[in-house]
Design brief:
elongated; alpha/beta; disordered C terminus; 248 residues; 23 strands; 2 domains; 10-stranded parallel beta barrel
Length: 248
Amino acid sequence: SISHATVLTDTENQGLLSNLTIESSATVTGGELTGTIINQGTLKDVEFLGISLSGGTLAGTIVNNSRVGGIIHDVTLASNAILSGGKVGGTINAAPDSRISDVQLMANTTINGGTLAGNIRGTSNSPATIIHATISSMTTLADVTIISPVELPDDVVIGSGVTLPPKEEIAVNNVLAPMQIQHIEANVLSTLPPETVSELTAEQIQQIPPLALSGLTAEQSAALSQLNRSHKFHRRPSMVSMLTKSWD
């Protein structure tokens, strides 16, 4: 292994490098990185095991397998790059065809671009911000603020602590996780397209906090009324009446 070095030129790594500074003229490809990595160049196809990896460009497949809670932060993801696992922080500028999956976003992280997949969770007291990104099918989101334009497939699971953009800025409808239904607030409920509301079951609607019902729009209320007429809620017609009475 090599430690406490500065890399000036393109390097193929088949071992372990630690506590490196990578100059802008250099690309380090392959191997494992540990300690503190200051990147001003490019890292490609590496496994990160250290405390901090910051700066520069990440290319190929980058896996954060740090066992000490190491953070990859303030980096740029190149075209077709894949960043997966562990903690991510700072500002991540991602190429449209890059991918971020199964990561924990530290306080006040910003993800700008790319595609998010798997389990994407932020920090409850300082949620991460996601902008100009695509959310993959079956992704689970928690404790993030989504700012348009962001594409959301209809099977994305919206967990607790998620703030959605205004409904007219959401590409397609969303699926609410049980935890989100139980704690949903009026301003979040009002952002859901009527198509999403029409897919809620009677049990799900019963779980919505009473204070959040003030967030219903006329269009959402109409969708629920249509469900009532179609007998989807024949066991609890009073629930639909309660949800729609302010708009009838």
